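Predict structure. Chain length: 259.
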Amino acid sequence: MSLFVTAKVEIQETAATIGAERELISLAVDAIKAARLDIERQIRKDRFFLTTLEPYEPDKHSSRIVQRMCEASNVAGVGPMATVAGTIAQEALEAMEAAGCTHGWVDNGGDIALILDDSATLEVFSEPGSDSAFALELERSDRHFGICTSSGRLGHSISFGNADVVVVIAQDAVIADALATAVGNRISLPEDLRTCFDGFKSTPGLIGALAMCDGSVATHGRVPRIVEVEHNAERLTVHTRMASSKYLGAQQKRAEVRT
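Prediction complete.
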């Protein structure tokens, strides 16, 4: 078995951290580039695909990646670009899986596709300036899955809500990304946590979800054990050329895998 490495890559607006055996990294990078090209072609073809915040019906000639984005976003009731980070992460992981990867991940700015043949810890959330953070203890898995986050208080992505953080675990990062956005849109006040998962609980592929608003927490389905870990800002997946995210709350959105 070759050396396991963690590589940070930036391809235009995409900033990703890839964990895998060394020879698989280039496959993930190529898949990221290919996914971006497909998405860019669709935007040139129809700019409404980029701007709509509602489900989008692609034509029959649209690429497999565009179809995949639209299927997930239609289920969640959001626009297709709500799935873009998770889709790119998922495509990159699947390219490594096709070459035999059984332990690895692609973290696209907090939207993560993973396959684990050993346990790992996923840091999801921390308070700015704190030495500790909230994290999930992940068990090994024989198949890939996705963990995606949304926040109404920090980040570049659009959210109509005010959640500290929403974390969705699903069978892939495409549907996890769509659902994280959709659930986050529903949360403006802590009392919204009571109903934020309604309508999504029976979504095919959904494993579990967690939502937090002003320190109050709601969960649905199977959520990994929550633990406290040491915060390490150096492991953030952050784009060096993008402006700092606007911070609106008392907490900071995080997502990172540790083994």
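Summary: The chain has a mean pLDDT of 87.
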